[in-house]
Design goal:
25% of the residues lie in helices and 25% in strands. A hairpin with a 4-residue loop joins strand 1 and strand 2. The chain is built from four helices and nine strands.
Length: 175
């Protein structure tokens, strides 16, 4: 964000106007932590991850088993389907999202733009996570890096599995 060199582990802010994540140094991170309302159109990405267990994959009405949902500033919700070309997005039915929020109150507390509900129901998995949006960007990067051929090849699914296994580990911020 400010141009200083960054360590491998660092925090991010969302530039709400550009819709992009920006890396932050320790000073910028502290600035945005102190001002919870954000400075202008920047919002600090939280670090908290939470595994959710009270959800059924059929409730989401999505056509694939790997998806993340992000609440927008206007309250609408976008489903993002990671692919080797980046995420494909579609709007979630407002009634479906309200029903999910009633069943899982943690979804009502999601911070727009910087937190996501991440689902993995592909290949027999059944995982639901409330994660920082930068985790979703990392997942897309894993898929882009590992995908080969039409079906993904032999390394993409083990890499996705390793990504989800890593969600249970604490985030290692240097700040």
């Amino acid at each position: 964000m400010c141009g200083l060199a960054l360590p491998g582990q660092h925090r991010h802010v969302l530039d709400e106007q550009a819709g992009e994540l920006m890396c932050t140094c320790q000073a910028c991170t502290l600035l945005f932590q102190r001002d919870a309302a954000g400075r202008g159109h920047y919002q600090l990405v939280p670090e908290t991850r939470m595994r959710l267990t009270d959800l059924s994959p059929t409730e989401f009405g999505v056509p694939v088993g790997l998806v993340y949902f992000v609440v927008q500033g206007d309250g609408s919700v976008l489903a993002n389907y990671p692919s080797p070309m980046g995420p494909t997005r579609s709007e979630v039915d407002a009634g479906t999202w309200r029903a999910l929020q009633q069943r899982c109150p943690e979804l009502s507390a999601m911070t727009p733009g910087v937190q996501a509900l991440l689902l993995n129901t592909a290949r027999g998995a059944d995982e639901h996570w409330l994660v920082p949006i930068d985790d979703c960007y990392r997942l897309v990067a894993v898929i882009k890096r590992e995908w080969t051929g039409l079906s993904g090849g032999s390394t993409v699914w083990p890499a996705i599995r390793a990504f989800f296994d890593g969600l249970a580990e604490p985030r290692r911020s240097t700040y």
